[in-house]
Amino acid sequence: MLTERRKGKSLMKVLLVYPLHIRSFEQPLGVLYVSAVLKQHGHEIKLFKLSEQEDWNFEKEPSVVEKSFLDVVHHFNPGIIGISLLSTNFHRGQLFAEWVKKNTDIKIVLGGAGPTVEPEKMLSQSKADFLCVGEGEYAALDLVQALEERSDTTRIANIWSKRNGQILKNEVRPLVEDLDTIPFPDRELIRDEFENGNIEWTSFISSRGCPYQCSYCHNPYLQKLYRGKGRFTRIRSIEKIIEELKEVKSIYSVKRVTFSDDTFTIDPKRILEFCSFYAGEITLPFQCQTRANHVSKEIFRALKDAGCQEVHIGLEAGNDRQRNKVLKRDMSREQILTAISDAKEAGLKVATFNIIGAPYETEETVWDTIHLNRLAQPEAVYHTIFMPLTGSEAKDICVKEGWTIREINAGYYGAVFLEQPSISPRKLIAYQYVFDLYVYCPRWLYPIVHLLRFLWKTAPPTEDRRLLGRIQRTIANQGVNYLKKVFYLRSDWSYSDACKGRKKGINDFLHFPTSGERG
Question: What distance in Å separates the CA atoms of residue 518 and residue 125, rounded to the nearest whole number?
Answer without folding.
Answer: 26
